[in-house]
Amino acid sequence: MSELFYNRPQVDLVSESACLLRFSDAVNNETADRISIVAKALRELPGIVDLIPSYTTLLTVFDADHYDRFAIVARIRQLIEQLDFDEQQLSAAREVVIPVYYGPEVGPDLDEVAQHCRLSVNEIISLHSDTSYRAYAIGFTPGFAFLGNTPEALHVPRKNTPRLKVPLGSVAIAERQTAVYPSVTPGGWQIIGRTPVTLVDWNSESLALIQGGDTVRFTPISRAEFIAQGGTLDGF
Amino acid sequence: MAFNVIKPGILALVQDLGRHGYQHLGVTTGGPMDELAFRWANALLDNNENAAQIEITFGMLTLEAQAATSIALTGADLGATLNGCTIYPWQTYAVKKGDVLSFKQANYGLRAYLAVKGGLQVAPVLGSCATVLREKLGGVRGNGEKLQQGDIIPYQATHTHRSRSVPRLAIPDYTSLDIPLVMGYQSNYFSGLDRANFFGSEFTITPQSDRMGYRLNGRPILSNQQGIVSEGIAYGAVQIPNDGQPIVLLRDRQTIGGYPKMGCVTGFGGGLLAQKKPGDSLRFQSVSIDQAEQKRHLDLARIAQWR
């Protein structure tokens, strides 16, 4: 299939109060940049209730009860027309650094991943932490960021049987993606470490540490540093 | 001044119109499963449209009023009684200190709405008191729990009461089989035959249905593509997984997903669906966005004019 790339996103109404903006068929940084730029601009538009950025799309939910639907859609199209994508580049992307303890007690799948990738555990750790990732989408649970793309040497399938409980802060990989579990949920990704950092705090001003479009890096920390920063080894 | 929860019932949740503006963080909206019934309950008491209410699913709830107030009941008929006397949905009732309000089981519909004059006084979390169990957000304690025995749900006492009821013509028909749906998203991934099957056949609601989504069972609908790149899910989206059995995503839906979607059930159409139980049947009725919008405006105008 050839990769489609729209110079301007397509705007399709999907219900009486939502439209889906399609940017491209390609999952990459350029698409993510464009989605971030448009989301930022639309956030200022009166009548916009919710924006859900994802890999190649931006779902835009508007208040059709108090605003004219035709006027809102026209305003969305007009705003996109006016945007200069070339001038507003990556400067918009924030970088979030997440400390990770890649230890056997908190990364039970490290050995399996190393075997599958035919690398040493240390090589897995340096590959994972030498890469800069992009938050393509947030979902699954509140604050769960789908980060891509992992280096090809690190590509590993999901576990055949998902764990019923993945401990808080677990750092995991699967196929082209990596993520941190912000809450205790079931999960089938390969767990390679844990962060002591809190990812979501609904009482804080920022709410969630990672936002869609952010750039994320992981830095390895020692077991002692992990514990000093409030990390715990329980959960398995 | 509060309701004291004597018996919590099967599933009673504090709801307002939902938590909006946080879906980009993966936080779902929550909100009333039957939005029209919710809006009417607040209108009956001249409340703010977003005033918090209790959504009662299945029934079996008993509350004791600790102060006089005026209540409104809409939605399903769950066999409600006030001090043992039967009361009916779609109207208001005066309540005195010590009165006992009970819900037995469904006579028709599945979810009843109980509004109180001035709204329930529950602290919002992220701008809303909508309870979402899965996300541990909202509700009486803010932690997403359903009502528990001994919960105290505050309201402002009032001795003024107006007897009011919803005009008969404005009461939705919960026995209707037809659920309006706007085609969209990946509807072109389905062949003409599969689209005809989708709109032409009846589906049964399975027991694996909840506030997140209604899972249906019927003649399988096949798509030309197994999955798509994950994208935002609008309220009412009907996704068709690989087994061909549709899932209608409702108030507590996940925010993104990767299955092809036929379109979206309308805002108030989803309310009709949410009044159905496992084992009930439904058909999807194709409507245009214009029709969906007109119907919604008509229903809202009816409420506004009546107020």
Automatic annotation (TrEMBL), chain B:
Q: Which Pfam families match?
A: CT_A_B
Keyword hit for Nucleotide-binding: yes
Note the InterPro entries from the entry: CT_A_B, Cyclophilin-like_dom_sf, PxpC
List residues of the Carboxyltransferase domain: 24-301
Does the keyword section mention Nucleus? no
Q: Please give the coiled-coil regions recorded for this protein.
A: none
Could you name the domain of life of the organism this protein comes from? Bacteria
A GO molecular function annotation here is:
ATP binding
Keyword list (alphabetical) reads:
ATP-binding, Hydrolase, Nucleotide-binding
Q: What is this protein called?
A: Biotin-dependent carboxyltransferase family protein
Please name the source species. Neptunomonas phycophila
